[in-house]
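Thread: "does anyone have the structure for this chain?"

Original post by V.I.:
We have the sequence but no experimental structure in hand. Need at least a predicted one for the grant figures.
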Amino acid sequence: MIIAWDGLLGETMSFISQILFGLLAVLSFHPTIHSYAEDNTQKSITAEDGEYRAILTGAGEPWFDPKTGGRVKFTFSVTDIINNRQYPVYLDNVTAKVFNLSIFQGKLIVMGEEANLHSPVTTLIDLKNREEADSFIGFGNTQSPTGRFLSYRKFYPPQTAEPPVMSDLVLVYDLADSAAGNRMRGEDAYRNDPIGWLTEVGHPIYPESNAGKKHYRVWVPEENKRHTIIPNGFFWFDHDRKIAFGDQIGDEDYVVVVDLSSGLTQPVIHRMEIDLRSLLRPEDRENATILHEAKPLKLESVQDLKNGKIEVRISSRVPLRDNRLEFPFEETAPAASKQTQESAQPTHGPQR
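Reply from O.Q.:
Generated one for you, tokens below.
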């Protein structure tokens, strides 16, 4: 199957999206398919950025629009605030539910879910041209404070990779760039790989091997070396220049901070080990059952203390003596594959 990616906009982009998600559905069939009538979309979702305002006004069964000839599943009422114009924009791909809207530089970012695989779908709509500009799938999608970046974990079609060797990969999508600019393999590499066009999207920033080589393939046969990004979100700070998250490698837990000050192509990775025993009550520190049940640790917040340290708040399934840790965090020059801080010693925050 050869797909020409030139001019990936408008009806062509919507049609391509439907084909690609159809292929994913075949590869990983799920017996439960929700109808659009059962859609529990929040219909009051809105977004505004000073130039545009978008309101989700309609969602339901696909229907034929005589003007566009396409199936319309979702309708957004868009207001061009500067020119005082109002018009409808349609989302016509496999999205079955819409959870969140935001706007960045004239692009409407629609975060939702498709029906067959329940996969998280992100669709970008060009509000000026009223066209779909891109769509992709990724887990834990989190938008940065300025709105420019989306961070997420790579999606693996269930039957296109062997679960025993899967390891998490963190990606960042630059909303200020084009669809092609967010695909590191180059457009030509995707001509015979439509699933890759949907799933290998964004700039790899972690782990080190992927960030340094700018590739999406993850193959980690050794179980104790696989990365498991704790799926409770990413934490952006320092004006989008840094992003933090939790990672579990084997039986060890880490706080990871990626410095993007020099751009997405030159991430600097800091990985700091969490001393679980220091978080537990003294009587629990050698209790094997509690040590086991405490995992995985979850990051609840990350704060830059502006004194060369960051404060991390952590939660667990077992009682903790203190849930706050401080880690030294030094600014460093950019390097694609910098050696990480494997055993930075945490300092507990002040008792409150």
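V.I.: this helps a lot. The first strand starts at residue 46 and ends at 48.
O.Q.: and The first helix runs from residue 10 to 27.
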